[in-house]
Recover the amino acids of this structure.
């Protein structure tokens, strides 16, 4: 089986990134493309990407964990030393998924990785799967992104905004656009989540570290208290999608919980980060409704047929809402009165018809387009 190098947000204790990487690993293994994976990361920090019955070899970079802990050498190691350690002979080099090509410093890192690996195997297949491109802060970032992307044989992006950006660069690569990789994980686990979950028991909430201002805490606290009064039988699941020390969602979760009346605390369940991303699919499946700040809270909700609203903090959230056709009223804003927002949530809870303007089967079936070029490249 082929040797595959993977460069992504791996080992950063983030459920969304773990879910996308799990899809990459499981798809390539189940498609018999390759099962020997080398990650640009520390092995011990990696999530669980494969099932026990899938024969997979996974390794990282030696000494990655040690060097990364030393502040004065961390940046030098990541950008100049680790690309050399990573440059063993590979058949495929994949970048992805997620918000990947936007900062010049990262684009130059990817270029170093590509050049080092090509020295070992000039015929290595190089591509990006499930990525977002941009937004860019300046022309230098866009130029660096173009220099990186034009070294790849194929690019599969996860939103139309990224697709348009890449097309405008005038690249000669094969380019595809398909929905987020994480949508495919249930199918790779042979679980369709078609039947109802734990109906009538849970409402879920995800916050995003660093994007919850005091005003939003006040608004959310008031909204949750009114929901708790209106629906006394519901418990609230609060999800920690990212547990990385510098971006731990639990910090925001604690702020919100502290703002709530103590009599609500026994109705709150904290869902901590799990190394097995599929655990979060099952937890979200048990919810009747999700309030999603984290992008992948919304993506997983869609994947498991759980109703959701979005509390957008970034363009990528709006990109996904547009991709699936989420009605605009379900993109919540704190400048909308709490009573009006509660009406919107009540309407969604009672809604029995499919609310999205885009056909679900087309969205789900098209995710595999991210991998279109890989089997074709080896068939030629």
């Amino acid at each position: 089986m082929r040797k595959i190098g993977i460069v992504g947000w791996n080992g950063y204790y983030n459920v969304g990134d773990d879910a996308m990487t799990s899809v990459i690993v499981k798809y390539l293994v189940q498609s018999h493309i390759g099962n020997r994976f080398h990650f640009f990361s520390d092995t011990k920090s990696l999530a669980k990407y494969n099932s026990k019955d899938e024969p997979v070899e996974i390794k990282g970079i030696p000494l990655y964990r040690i060097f990364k802990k030393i502040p004065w050498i961390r940046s030098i190691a990541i950008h100049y030393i680790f690309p050399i350690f990573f440059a063993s002979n590979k058949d495929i080099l994949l970048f992805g998924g997620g918000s990947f090509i936007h900062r010049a410093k990262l684009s130059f890192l990817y270029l170093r990785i590509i050049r080092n690996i090509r020295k070992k195997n000039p015929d290595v297949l190089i591509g990006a799967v499930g990525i977002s491109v941009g937004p860019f802060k300046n022309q230098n970032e866009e130029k660096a992104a173009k220099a990186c992307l034009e070294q790849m044989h194929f690019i599969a992006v996860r939103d139309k905004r990224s697709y348009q950006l890449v097309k405008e660069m005038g690249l000669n690569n094969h380019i595809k656009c398909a929905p987020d990789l994480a949508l495919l994980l249930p199918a790779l686990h042979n679980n369709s989540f078609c039947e109802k979950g734990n109906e009538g028991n849970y409402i879920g909430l995800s916050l995003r570290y660093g994007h919850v201002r005091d005003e939003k805490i006040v608004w959310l606290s008031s909204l949750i208290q009114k929901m708790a009064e209106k629906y006394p039988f519901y418990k609230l699941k609060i999800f920690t999608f990212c547990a990385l020390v510098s971006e731990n969602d639990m910090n925001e979760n604690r702020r919100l919980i502290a703002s709530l009346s103590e009599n609500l605390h026994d109705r709150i369940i904290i869902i901590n980060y799990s190394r097995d991303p599929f655990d979060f699919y099952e937890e979200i499946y048990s919810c009747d409704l999700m309030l999603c700040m984290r992008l992948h809270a919304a993506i997983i909700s869609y994947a498991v047929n759980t109703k959701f609203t979005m509390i957008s903090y970034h363009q990528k959230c709006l990109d996904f809402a547009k991709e699936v056709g989420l009605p605009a009223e379900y993109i919540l804003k704190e400048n909308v009165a709490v009573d009006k927002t509660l009406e919107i949530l009540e309407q969604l809870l009672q809604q029995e018809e499919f609310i999205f303007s885009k056909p679900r089967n087309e969205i789900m079936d098209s995710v595999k387009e991210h991998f279109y070029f890989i089997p074709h490249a080896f068939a030629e």
In short: The chain has 15 helices and 13 strands. The chain has two domains: 2-177, 202-362. The first strand starts at residue 2 and ends at 7.
